[in-house]
Amino acid sequence: MEINQDTSFKDFFKKEIRKTEIIKNSKVFEIAYLPNEIFKRAETLDLFQEIARIIRFDKPTHIFLRGLPGTGKTVTVKYLQEQLKGLGNAKWQIIYVNCRNRTAVDILKELNELNSVRLISEEQMTTCFIQNLKNNTILVLDEVDKSRYEISNLLYRLSRISESTENPTYKKLSTILISNKLDWENTLDGSVRSSLQMRVINFNSYNPDQLKSILKERIREGLISQDVISDQLLDWICKMVTEERHGDCRTAIETLFYAAQNVEERGVKTIDMEDVKLGYGVCVKKIEKARIMSLKNHELYVLYAISKSDTKTYANIYNQYKDIIRSKIHERIFSYSKIFQDIKYLEDQNLVRKNKKEGSKELTIELTIDESAVEREYLTRSENINSSE
């Protein structure tokens, strides 16, 4: 960049802030952005019909939405929440809570709008929530698989609200539990699963055509023209995201945004292949870092064990994992079958992949991410745990 010594930094900064060439609305590319219309497919219509039945018949139902990251679960539920508000339905409301890194008490504090710490038990807080329900409620608990500790007791109590003597106004409660972990319901106690009787709705990964439709809508809303990027480059983004990222819509949207950003930095008007490849690379690294940081401790230990394993076989990884846990003071060694499940989850998160060498019947597990990123997070978390002990 050429530096003009006659221009003050104040003027330069103001110009940089206001400068834009092709991005007219950057909010369109944010993960939290809620479009005016969402992409319609079978699973979204299935969910809409379930919610309509709950409201029409005043009959509580518990729903489990499962799907890999970026399959539209959260945006669909938030869209439904806005639609219900717009209808002015006074009998039913949707309350949304994200459970990531939160305990049952944290969740109940938000539900009860308790901003200060109080010495009150989980059971008392649940009773308080039940007694203060002013409307029939659909409670959305997003990322339940990322909650801290066990929330089964909370889910059991919530599933029994309609029968509770502590519910004097007889308000009804449905729940929508959202998880990236496809088998999360199997981690629940049998009595909780029996009480919830969840209706399972699978959100499938987007295919290339679906991703392209979504990207074109974001281009229409967020960029100055549809001509900024060619159909061929959109096809490339959708193909890469489908093949390498399990059709994660967020990856496709952010790739487009970073590519557009790079075009503005270069001072040109259209996106080319280099911009797209750069945007894709930046996006993947950002998402991988976020996913590593979001792992629970034992999941991170398994990922670290994979990175340190010599042969990358299940048996060798498990032995490596046990060695890691033995160095920890307050951690227990999980069973081989539990580690097998964790590896499947890591595969769903695009952090590892299975591989079978030619002429061998034995599967190996390999990282799909930078090993140094895993090591950094492992060492950081280990240091934090040690300093708190």
Provide the CATH topology of the largest domain: Rossmann fold
List segments where confidence is low: pLDDT < 50 over at least 5 consecutive residues.
none
Task: Output the CATH class name of the largest domain.
Answer: Alpha Beta
Structural class: alpha/beta
Q: Tell me the helix content.
A: 40-55%
Please report which band the strand proportion falls in: under 5%, 5-15%, 15-25%, 25-35%, 35-45% or over 45%.
Answer: 5-15%
Average pLDDT value? 88
SS elements, strand count? 7
CATH superfamily of the largest domain: P-loop containing nucleotide triphosphate hydrolases
Helix and strand element order: HHEHEHHEHEHEHHHHHHHEEH
Number of helices in the DSSP assignment? 15
Q: What is the second-level CATH architecture of the largest domain?
A: 3-Layer(aba) Sandwich
Tell me about the largest β-sheet. 5 strands, parallel
Cα end-to-end separation: 50 Å
Side by side, the strands of the main sheet go 2-3-4-1-5
Overall structural domain count: 3
Radius of gyration: 24 Å
The coarse silhouette is: globular
Description:
With 389 residues, the chain is an alpha/beta fold. The protein folds into three domains: 42-202, Rossmann fold; 206-288, Helicase, Ruva Protein, domain 3; 295-388, Arc Repressor Mutant, subunit A (Orthogonal Bundle), CATH 1.10.10.10. It is built from 15 helices and seven strands. It has helices spanning 9-18, 42-57, 73-87, 104-111, 122-131, 152-159, 190-196, 208-222, 231-244, 249-266, 273-294, 297-308, 314-326, 336-348, 371-388; strands at residues 62-66, 92-98, 136-142, 173-179, 199-202, 352-356, 363-367. The strands form two sheets. A five-stranded parallel beta sheet has the order 2-3-4-1-5, sandwiched between helices. A two-stranded antiparallel sheet has the order 6-7. Helix 6 links the parallel strand 3 (136-142) and strand 4 (173-179).
